[in-house]
Design goal:
Order of helices and strands: HHHEEHH
Radius of gyration: 14 Å
Distance between the termini: 35 Å
Helix content: 55-70%
């Protein structure tokens, strides 16, 4: 629960619009772990019952903003590839983009339907996040 609350707090700070609270990388890492790694490949320090609610919190609190983010994180031999994707996002942008958003929305839906992977409460949060993302998309279209 502390992990989820830390993500909610970071999202709320970002929602203030103050440049000192630029935590988009924190959001990306949470989304990547929750939604871009197949369940069977998650490590013991990446519990889906923590990461998925945290990812859903980012969507609930800053979804409209995240949908519009077009940030790419620097990559290279001296800085690494901190914006890289998980196994389900190998060839895409090292940051935020509409295609990655689409993957995340689809994964929220897939995870909400998985048997025995997450609790019913977390499945509900995943469904809500998927619905919220679809609503955001329809408002922009």
């Amino acid at each position: 629960m502390r992990f989820v609350n830390a993500n909610k707090f970071a999202a709320r700070l970002m929602a203030t619009g103050e440049p000192v609270f630029a935590f988009s990388f924190f959001a990306l890492v949470t989304m990547r772990t929750a939604l871009e790694i197949p369940v069977a490949q998650l490590r013991s320090d990446q519990p889906l019952d923590a990461f998925l609610p945290a990812a859903a919190a980012w969507i609930a609190l800053l979804g409209s903003e995240i949908y519009g983010w077009d940030e790419e994180f620097e990559q290279g031999p001296l800085v690494g590839a901190k914006g890289r994707g998980g196994p389900l996002w190998q060839e895409g942008k090292h940051g935020f983009c509409e295609e990655r958003w689409n993957l995340w929305r689809e994964r929220f839906g897939e995870l909400a339907e998985m048997e025995n992977a997450i609790s019913e409460e977390v499945k509900g949060l995943a469904r809500q996040a998927e619905e919220r993302m679809s609503q955001i998309e329809s408002k922009v279209a």
